[in-house]
Amino acid sequence: DKYTAEIKAFAATKADELEAFRIKFLGTKGIIKDLFDQFKTVGPEEKRTFGKVLNQFKQLAEEKYSELKEASANTADTATADIDKTLPGDGFELGSRHPLTLVRNEIIDVFKRLGFVVAEGPEIEDDWHNFSALNFPEEHPARDMQDTFFIKKNSGTDDIALRTHTSSVQVRMMENGKPPFRAIMPGRVYRNEAISARAHCFFHQVEGLYVDENVSFADLKQTLYHFVQELYGEGTKVRFRPSYFPFTEPSAEMDVSCTICKGSGCNMCKYSGWVEILGCGMVDPNVLENCGIDSKKYTGFAFGMGIERITNLKYVIRDLRLFSENDVRFLKQFQSEI
Ligand code: PHE
């Protein structure tokens, strides 16, 4: 009876108290084992009543134990009761975004604010979307100019290759929709070049396309001027130099004033004060027609830049190979919230 009352009143909250309870009553040297030993010694006429009481007692102890154990597992309080919850938690290390991802997102953000949407397309392209629709004449050295990785090459027009630029996405977009188009095309592109500090067999581009009625070269200039101010800061100077691309006419390359040293000798600009960052131009009417767009009604501009180049200039990175080596000492230096 004494023990019955003790068991009923017992309310352990800590794991060690509960364990002490188990050892005291249910353990191999516990009270219940002891009582069962005594049971063997009582006379046969007492065995019936004693046995009944003993079994009830054992059941009570076991039920109490499993009930408390379940309760303690549910609250989890028993294990942490001694922990000071006002102490700050253990810190954990966050990964960081790849610098090319950071800069790509930044470029996308600037153009999104100007109303450009993001378009994507396949990295394995056919000749039409990568070259022919873009006004590259067949057998034109321009195809070699981009040092293409061909997957299938025979007649020219049914060649399959790794895309050399994301202009192919512009073609797909124009073929599948109706003007106006205002989109940027970020993506990985491939060119068969020897790997060095300044060249790689793949890199990342953001190209852009704006097609509507009355789009002019002035729109092109203002858009890209605004982009550079946002990316490299107010007051960054730009200049346009005439250039040539099969898919734009007229074509230009845009330089920015060296953002690192403003031309005073960081060597990113080879001391000239200017660095080329992109190619651009008015979409050639042939390209519009190839994509089923009326070139008498619509005009457009296009541009394309390498994200690596933009990133190098922003963070003074002088070796392209760092971007694909996954050295954490390099990657860890880029922390961000996005
Ligand atoms: N497609 C060109 C390249 O990869 C870049 C470009 C795009 C130039 C659009 C002009 C207009 O080099």
TrEMBL record:
Which superkingdom is the protein from? Bacteria
Q: What's the Enzyme Commission number for this chain?
A: 6.1.1.20
Q: Which residues form a coiled coil?
A: none
Instruction: List ligand-binding residues for Mg(2+).
Output: 249
Name the InterPro entries on file: aa-tRNA-synth_II, aa-tRNA-synth_II/BPL/LPL, Phe-tRNA-synth_IIc_asu, Phe-tRNA_ligase_II_N, Phe_tRNA_ligase_alpha1_bac, Phenylalanyl-tRNA_Synthase, tRNA-bd_arm
What is catalyzed by this enzyme?
A: tRNA(Phe) + L-phenylalanine + ATP = L-phenylalanyl-tRNA(Phe) + AMP + diphosphate + H(+)
Q: How is the cofactor bound?
A: Binds 2 magnesium ions per tetramer.
Keywords, ordered alphabetically: Aminoacyl-tRNA synthetase, ATP-binding, Cytoplasm, Ligase, Magnesium, Metal-binding, Nucleotide-binding, Protein biosynthesis
Stated family: Belongs to the class-II aminoacyl-tRNA synthetase family. Phe-tRNA synthetase alpha subunit type 1 subfamily.
Please state what the protein is called.
Phenylalanine--tRNA ligase alpha subunit
Native organism taxonomy = Bacteria, Pseudomonadati, Bacteroidota, Sphingobacteriia, Sphingobacteriales
Per the record, the gene is: pheS
